[in-house]
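Q&A log
Question type: sequence-to-structure
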Amino acid sequence: MATILIVNAREAVNQEIQSAYGIARASASMRLPQETRGTDDTMAIARQLADELDGLRHVAADITDPRVTRSMRPTMPEPQDEDPPPAWFAALMRPEMSEDRLAITRYPNVLGFLHISTDPNDEIAEAWEDFRIVLPVLIGTALSLIALAVGLTVFVLRRLQLVQDAMAHIQAGDLTRRAPDSQFVELASLAEAA
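Response status: OK
Response body:
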């Protein structure tokens, strides 16, 4: 059951991330060339677009210099999650990264690049919130079923042992020995024959 939940959650994370990425990429592809052609403040427009895209869920955006060596946007501290998902869960849920790089140009120069990439962290955190509620229920149910199966097995084996002991005494010549009555139909007919 846990495997099915993980596979379904991973697929849901991937679909949502790719959908947001596709929208962000299409928006940037449409707006960047039109807004930056022949404009004096090309980088300001590109920064505004990067800020808008970076504000979307599941998408990260950045502007780098033409050599793609450093970011040209001020870095904002990432808000820290109070209870982040464990690394093993994040690695299990993380879909394949998608990213694209669009040139920021003012003819004939390349001023920098707009990088757009997927950012699944908030979706993984949501999946973890659901999973950490469901997981204890699944574990509790599994332990209860195991305890029930072990209890029933022990009970049946004790009844079979009593019938086997009675048959061993009868086989040894003690014909006064009877098998104990049983609540199980199968054991009751066996006990009557002994």
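Response note: Residues 161 and 167 are 10 Å apart (CA to CA).
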